[in-house]
Each structure stands twice: as C-alpha cells, then as structure tokens.
DNA sequence: TAGTGAGAGGTTTTT
DNA sequence: CCTCTCACTA
C-alpha cells in the first residue's frame, strides 16, 4: 500500500513552508514578505529585488492559506501583473495565478462593469482613448464656434491636457491653466465651458475616458459605504507596485480600498518617478506613512542587477538630484568594465557603432534579446532602425505609436464599437464618414436619426436620406450591422465580416494599403482571444497590443531580437548590455523640459532609470552633430553642434567613472 | 457640403 | 517631419 499524506494547509512555522523564504531572500526582503498585516512601505532601489519580493509575498500569502482571490496586485502594466503571477505560480503552484491583478485602470474597469449604475452609468459604457477624447473636445469646440476666433485658442490636445491634469492631480482646471498655460489665461472661461460640456457629453453618451475610470471608481468608493466595505472585504491583501508613479487620485483609491483592514503594501522608488506628466507625484510615496500612521518601512538597498562600476556611475547620476534621498545602493557583483562613453560624429556614425557592437556582443555569446538600446523619444531610433535593417539585425521596438492608434485599425474598430454601444457617436461619425459622399455634416444628421431609434439601426435608412447618392451605401451598412447583431457570433466572426465590408474603402483610402493589411490580419488574430465584444474593445483601449505581441506567429527560437525601447517603456526591465543614445541637450533632456526645473529633475530620474537597466555593459553615446531639433535656432543647414547631455557633464568625476572610447575609422587600403 | 490641396505650426514620455 | 487647419472648388 502506498502512503499518501495530505498536507496540513496552515503552516504555522517558517520551516513548514514549501519554500525556504529565509534562504531565498535577504533580511529586508524577508521582512517585507513575511509581514502580512498592517500597512507597509517598501522603498526599493533599482535592481534591489523588488519584483522578487512581491512574487514571494504572493506565494507566502497563498501558503498561509489565504484565498488568492482576496489578494489584489496593482501594477503599472497588466503585462507585469501577469508576469508576476506566472512567476509566483512557478515557485509555488497554480493557486498564485488566481490572484486579482492589473493596472489601476483595468481594475477600475472591472469594478465599474459591476457597479456602474451606482455612479449613473450603464454597465456597458464605452472607453475612449486619448484620440477619441480629443475628437469629442474638438466637436464641442466647433459647436461653441470657438474655432473661428481671431485670437489664438488652445488646440484640442492642449485642452485635453489641461482637463486631464486637473483630474489626475485633483486640482481645479483654473489652476492648471494659469500654472501651466498662462498665455491662455484669457480663454479660461471658454476652456471651463468646454470642460463642463465634455463631462456632460460623456455621461449622456455612456462614454468614459481613461481618467473617468479612476474618477468614477473613486466616487463609487467614496459615496457608497456598503460597496466600499464590501470591496474592501473582498480584497484583504493589497499590494501596489511602482507607487512612485501613482497620482493623487490613485493614492486615494488605494486608501479607500484598504479602508476596512489597512492591509496594504506599497512598493516603489522615489528616484525612479518618471510619470509626472501624467499627474504622478513621487511625494505620494513619502506621504504614505502619514496616510497610514503605523506603517512599517523597509528599505531595499542591495542591488543584484548591476556590476559595481555601473552602480558607481548611477549613484553619481542621482546624487545630483535636487531632493536628496536616504538610500545608497551597493552591489556585490564585481566587474572590471567601466561604463563606456563615446562621441560619434553624427547620428549615422552612432547607428553604425551600435550595429557593429551589437554583432560583436552576439559573437561573445550575449543573445540579442539581452541587449537593449534606450532613448528619450520614439523617433530618436529612426536612423538606427534603418541601419539595423541594412545589417539584417532583427529587433523589436517598444513605445511610440500604438497599434490600436493606427487610422485603419480605428476605422475597423469604429464599426465594432457601434455594435457594442449604439450611443457611441464618435464611432458612428468615424464609420459614416468613411462612406463616399458623407462628410461630418451629413454624418451628424444621420447619427441624430440613429440615436432616435437606438434599439436597432433603422435610423441609418431613415426616409429623408432615400434620395441621396449615398443611400445605397447606408442600406448596405444597415444590412451588415443588423446581421452582426446575431448573438451567436463571436467577436472574431463579426470582425471578419466587418473587414470584408471595409476592404474596398480601405484600398481606396490608403495608398499604402498593402503595408497595412497585415495589421488587419493581426487584429483578427487578437479578436480570437475574446468571448465578448465588450471585453475586446476594452482591452484594445486599456492594454493596447503592441507590435511585438502582434507578431506572435514567429515564436520560434531564433526570434531573439534586439530591443529598442523608449526609457518609459523600459521601466522595470533589465538587460545584459544597454546602449543609451542621443545623450545631447535638446534630445535628452528634451528641449521641452528646459522651461521648468521640476521637469529637469524628472529628466534626470529618467536618465537614472535608463542607466540602471544595465547588468554588465553600459554604453553612453553622444553624437556631436545632430539634426536641428525644435528650440534650437542654428540656421546651419538644419544641423546643430550638439552640447553633451548635462547629466553627464555635471558629474564631477565622470572621467574616472567611465571609460572613454575613441572611434577610429578603419583606413582603407588605397591599393 | 464633400473632397482636395497648400500652408503653417508644434514636435516626449502612457493608462 | 507630420498633422491639423483653412480655403477653394465642384
């Protein structure tokens, strides 16, 4: 007979756990992991095992027989939440994947789908992305006839920025406008008017923008005691990652969620706060203990990522920050190579250097996907991309244009959106203007008819349009949409029909349609993952699939690719070798940040984030001649002599901390 | 009123 | 450089 012992589910002593936490973690990490009650703040320096700590804490909670569904892990991207849950499952077991996790936005979405009526919304509200929100603003502006004015009136993007900043920082629109855009002070009344109409519009049309998700979740929690307590009871163990990048609103939500138990752990690094343009405030992390008076504070200072020479440089970078920090990272990883610093003649030579060096590194045994090139803004990599293509070096690029923001994708999705929410008139407008002979003006008239009879789409074929040239097209669209209402159809089936319908206009509309067809196929593949249309549309906005995800068909072994990434998208990641390019005033720090000191402080933190991504090799590159960028008046044939990035020159012993590399051009043999 | 073409202006980072 | 706007034409 075989003996089989059922394990006792509650392990009272450390020795009884499946995982030997003491051996796996250092003292501070251990403390953070095993202290499971009460508020906790973990200040985790770059590479100090922050993610590891969170993962082990999830495992520890689960091993203590805590229902995974009562653990909430709020992270910066959903990808990182999933990755953490995957790793936790790996060190323990499947239970860890049942943890609730995601971004503040996706969590808000999840909650609001349940409780929408309590904040006066339909549960099937639509979420609009930034572009759509701006279009709404624009149409309101047009309605108020503010676009025809003699004086300069802020653009839709600017107006949206003002409104968004005001919500995220919880300060009035007036203050934002006067603080950040004093030159528009005269337009304050009209901006306020637009802002109010925008709010009304969204409610009427059952639409939320990114900020509304947070606002409405906040309101739900604030105004309904029972709901608040119920939710707080459900999520008894809350963890928030990257807390330095949360804004006021998110901090409030986190506190409300913990109202019943104060079991909340926040993790972050004030030196790595890089999202203030989105309303994030790194002081949140400092204020946490005052929000929860008995907070336990743990600081993780040992760096497990980078070699000592790299860490010495990164410490020196952050040393110059205006606000002084209490931690200083150290590393046990020896390394003889200092970070390399080199100047190239121009952008072309910079790209050549990287192309060549990347290939050498690969020869030395570093896989391509362990190498990254980081830059301040997406377009900084353009020239490099050309070089990589010439050399046949495969790469993926993160950051910059989103798949879901491409015009043809938005076109297709607009048909899907009206299926999901017939009040979504931005989507109606977009789809209708795709038809020949229909511009904004007729589109609006048709939308008005549709909204009158929102149960079906018969407004599309209202008799007053019968004599118009485009009536046949409307009938065709009506037939299509009506047939797609069939509840047995899955999103992918619906999408397929929409794409077939859309293809003729698509080919007419875009000269380069051949290049774009691939994207439609990708979208179709993505759609197959979803059971409901609403889920799919929400995901496309909240978690925009990036190009790399789209290229899933090439999941074989040799799809090792060099990583190109904006620094913002590189947050939380690490690579064996890292190149930081365009270390030139005006590029990095960006010219836009020069106006305000606090922006410059953030640029420095951004540079710190970039440099701390490197494990073994760090290459800093400054091209000496750059294409003229905005803000520089160097009428020298479009080029300027570049000033090296101030975050390098301000370091006193820079020359000792780095190894200068001098580029030599190979001499061609004349014979 | 739709569709087109020229000119100007503003250029980051992302849920 | 790329997008948005405005004015013109059909």
Describe what you observe in this structure:
With 671 residues, the chain is an alpha/beta fold. It is built from 27 helices and 18 strands. Strands 11, 12, 13, 14, 15, 16, 17 and 18 form an eight-stranded mixed beta sheet that branches. Helix 5 packs across helix 10, helix 10 runs parallel beside helix 12 (248-257) and helix 18 (425-433) packs across helix 19. Residues 8-12, 548-557 and 630-637 have low confidence and may be disordered. The chain binds a DNA duplex (15 and 10 nucleotides) through helix 5, helix 10 and helix 19.
What percent of residues adopt helix (DSSP H or I)? 40-55%
Q: Specify the biggest β-sheet.
A: 8 strands, mixed
C-alpha end-to-end distance: 86 Å
The radius of gyration is: 27 Å
* Estimated structural class: alpha/beta
**Can you count the beta strands?**
18
Q: Shape from CA axes?
A: globular
Q: Tell me the strand percentage band.
A: 5-15%
Number of helices: 27
Low-confidence stretches: 8-12, 548-557, 630-637
